[in-house]
Amino acid sequence: MFPLLTVGLLVLLAIVVVLSTIKIVPQGREFTVERFGRYVRTLKPGINILTPFVETIGARINMMEQVLDVPRQEVITKDNVTVQVDAIVFIQVMDAASAAYRVTNLDYAITQLSMTNLRTVVGNMELDEVLSQRDQINTRLLAVIDEATSPWGVKVARIEIKDLLPPPDISNAMARQMKAERERRAVITEADGEKQAAIARAEGAKQAAILEAEGRREAAFRDAEARERSAEAEAEATRMVSEAIAKGDVNAINYFVAQRYVDAFAKLAESPQQRTVIVPAEMSSMIGSIAGVSELINSARGGAREG
User: Fold this and answer.
1) How crowded is residue 8: how many other Cβ atoms within 10 Å of its Cβ?
2) pLDDT for 191-247, tens place per residue?
3) 183-206 burial, b if ≥16 CB within 10 A, otherwise e?
4) CA pair distance 175, 109, nearest whole angstrom
5) Are 219 and 258 in contact (CB under 8 A)?
6) SS (H, E, C) the chain
């Protein structure tokens, strides 16, 4: 009976010794080992062997990145405006021994440190800067808190301002200011559009006036050219008739007489007070004289070409 009890106790003792000696550390964790209460080493993830009855597990440290919530607090800005601010801090333990033995309650210490520095940073800024420069606040907080937690074996990855709440009266004033600013921009945009439209209309009118002036200039040039050609033709005809008169041709003299007669008759017909136009009987003979002169001019031109 007693030998069986002894064997059972020995087996139980062996099981206890094995369980206290073999330690399995899960991934993302590290365990500190103490020998008679003094830190000696850190266990990494996996199976680890301890010295029975001498070494024990001290602290179980989470080595993964963690998120700490910084409680909301009231902060007075540089221009004496009270704002409510809260934040979140992303940390990761890099040295398990320092995190376990250099600070008591690591999460609480980092939270209090973040709240203190948040009041300091925001208190040195005016309200407009606090609302518009969150990135600058985050950067300054990150630099200060990371440096302070470095002896604890902790790396502060980033810190973010989660919310900023100014007083209700300030919020209403900001809303009205934003509305007035948007209305001002709308008026400026509308005025700029009208200005551009007026410029476009003026430019169009200018181009139209230029094109119209160019058209009148071209028409005047064409009219002048036509009159010049008509004058040249008239001068050529006069020269030919003058040469014919110089040679004693009677038809040339009749041409000048008929031309004057026709011009006078045309003026008589165009008179607004003249209701009846009398065609003289000698009109046919005058027309014949003009036809003869026309033949004379044609024959003179033909002789000039042959010469």
Assistant:
1) 10
2) 888 888 888 888 888 888 888 888 888 888 888 888 778 777 777 767 776 666 666
3) eeeeeeeeeeeeeeeeeeeeeeee
4) 38
5) no
6) CHHHHHHHHHHHHHHHHHHHHEEEECCCEEEEEEECCEEEEEECCEEEECCCCCEEEEEEEECCCEEEEEEEEEEECCCCCEEEEEEEEEEEECCHHHHHHCCCCHHHHHHHHHHHHHHHHHHCCCHHHHHHCHHHHHHHHHHHHHHHHHHHCEEEEEEEEEEEECCHHHHHHHHHHHHHHHHHHHHHHHHHHHHHHHHHHHHHHHHHHHHHHHHHHHHHHHHHHHHHHHHHHHHHHHHHHHHHHHCCCHHHHHHHHHHHHHHHHHHHHHCCCCCCCCCCCCHHHHHHHHHHHHHHHHHHHHHHHHC
Do 82 and 55 form a contact (C-beta atoms < 8 A)?
Answer: no
The mean pLDDT value of the chain amounts to: 80
- Which tokens in the block code for residue 233? 């033709």
Give residue-wise pLDDT tens across range 115-157: 999 999 998 988 888 888 888 999 999 999 999 999 999 999 9
Look up the pTM and report it: 0.56
Place of tokens 């607090």: 73
Tell me, what amino acid is at 154?
A: V
Look up tokens 């989470």; give the residue.
62
Q: Report whether pLDDT(68) > 70.
A: yes
In the numeric block, the tokens 């830190």 are attached to: 39
Q: Which of 19-23, 43-47, 274-278 has the highest mean pLDDT?
A: 43-47
At position 306, the amino acid (one-letter code) is E
pLDDT at 265: 60
Residue bearing the bigger pLDDT, 158 or 281: 158
